[in-house]
Amino acid sequence: MKIMIINGPNLNLLGSREPDTYGSQTFNSYFQSLKEKFPKVELAYFQSNIEGEIIDRLHAADKEFDGIVLNAAAYTHTSVGIGDAVKAISTPVVEVHISNTSAREEFRHKSFIAPNAKGVILGFGLQSYELAVLSFTEA
Ligand code: DQA
């Protein structure tokens, strides 16, 4: 099984960015532990701060991967383009968030991804990604 994890803007700063909200672990270090937890799963990782690059990567991942785990970060709440890309491809996408966006500011309650996603996992810290991978492997 092949799973692609795509992270959006500012998530390259995990570890140092707002640690009270996002924790103090870097994504690279978390990604290593995730690969160890799922030795039979081919896990790929892509991060970009650029909306169009995220759309391009969703297109490229379509049919190449069995599942996509997407944390579009702030673009979740603004990007019709990323929402449309998730709708356009046939590989299922699970939307994840580290924080519980429903418990935060009103503008974070809106998601352009969710209506087109297989499901949404939010608020479990970095463990949200593991739960999303499990949703594919245990399906
Ligand atoms: C986030 C939540 C978003 O509202 C925020 O803009 C992020 C991270 C999360 O994982 O909790 O950058 O997607």
Description:
- One of its GO terms (molecular function) is 3-dehydroquinate dehydratase activity.
- Helix content is 33%, strand content 19%.
- The protein is of the alpha/beta class and 139 residues long.
- The protein has a five-stranded parallel sheet, sandwiched between helices.
- Helix 4 links the parallel strand 3 (67-71) and strand 4.
- The chain starts with a strand and ends with a helix.
- The chain binds 1,3,4-trihydroxy-5-OXO-cyclohexanecarboxylic acid.
- 1,3,4-trihydroxy-5-OXO-cyclohexanecarboxylic acid binds at residues 10, 71, 73-74, 76, 97-99, 101, 108.
Distance between the termini: 12 Å
Beta-strand residue percentage: 15-25%
Placed side by side, the strands forming the largest sheet appear as: 2-1-3-4-5
- Sum up the overall morphology in one term: globular
Note the total helix count. 5
List of distinct ligands in this structure: 1,3,4-trihydroxy-5-OXO-cyclohexanecarboxylic acid
Measured on Cα atoms, how large is the radius of gyration?
A: 14 Å
The percent of residues in helical segments reads 25-40%
As residue ranges, the low-confidence spans are none
Q: What is the string of helix and strand elements?
A: EHHEHEHEEH
Largest sheet: 5 strands, parallel
Keywords: Amino-acid biosynthesis, Aromatic amino acid biosynthesis, Lyase
Function: Catalyzes a trans-dehydration via an enolate intermediate.
Subunit structure: Homododecamer.
Protein name: 3-dehydroquinate dehydratase
Topology:
Layout: E1 2-7, H1 19-22, H2 27-37, E2 42-47, H3 51-61, E3 67-71, H4 80-88, E4 93-97, E5 119-122, H5 127-137
Helix pairs in contact: 3-4
Bound molecules: 1,3,4-trihydroxy-5-OXO-cyclohexanecarboxylic acid.
